[in-house]
Amino acid sequence: MPSAEREPRILVTGGAGFIGSAVVRYLVQDERVAVCVVDALTYAGNLESLEPVAGSPLYQFIRADITDWDAMQAVFRSVQPTHVLHLAAESHVDRSITGPQAFIQTNVMGTCVLLEAARAYWETLPSEQQTSFRFHHVSTDEVFGDLEGSDTLFSEATPYAPSSPYSASKAGSDHLVRAWHRTYGLPVLITNCSNNYGPYHFPEKLIPLTIVNALEGRPVGVYGRGDQIRDWLYVEDHARALWCVLQQGVVGETYAIGGHNEQTNLHVVHSILTLLDDRLQTRPVGCKSHAELITFVTDRPGHDRRYAIDASKIQASLGWTPQETFTSGLAKTVDWYLANRVWWERVRSGAYRQP
After folding, report:
1. Do residues 221 and 315 lie in contact, with contact meaning Cβ atoms separated by under 8 Å?
2. Tens digit of pLDDT for each residue in 294-328?
């Protein structure tokens, strides 16, 4: 049995994904905290995103699926974490529309299995360690639905109204986490974040897909008229926020994390293409500017029009504020993709999944 006084050891589920890998890099490199990553390495899990910390004695990786009860029990027994950061999830809305079952399995059933494994482990701890243990569930603002036609913001008190199979599955997982706190006393924290962007983002989401398609001279697709509005949060700002909540957050509380950067999708795309025009001497074949690659495509079913977060609670109570503006963060993101072509080309080709 571990001693009452323990150095932090963070179990990060989904740590090979986009947000998860940013959190792991931040914890290991900046905070010098021991981290164990648990990831099933589905298509969006990429160990190459963890290469900057792979050689650190503070880093450990276990390949396992959060829906596997025996595996999760074994993870808790071997790792003996002081905190859990639960980021493992299926998260792509378009994929949830064509294959919703995988989202229910991972996001709902996987969270249930993980909660039970955490509870079984937590109940064996000495009282001091039970008190300091945290299960931090990372969720999305998409559980709140659509702000179309409103100038209001999502807050911790906003009623749930998910629109897609993805957001419905995340809403379900949020409810499970709250139930495990209310019913069993498990010390939980929940955060709901706005759209993340930044380095190591799997190129199926809007910003990285726009960048790599433009660099390859492919059409840059924009849904509908591109007037959907999102609040953009630089992923490294999000990583700092999650660590802040894990350390200082009040058990049972929810914290909304946003970047204060509402932009239409079309403006985001134009901003990226303008940055590429500024940075590259060449243009796609037959184009005077990268903006000529924009192609408007049929909107996806149930597409929410606007998301925006009121992050005043985390700012007032925990002192977190984003360090990047949308302008500075987007420039850093574009520059990263320009400098790391090998990373995203290996993702596009599927080579990153080869042993």
Report:
1. no
2. 999 998 888 889 999 999 999 999 999 999 999 99
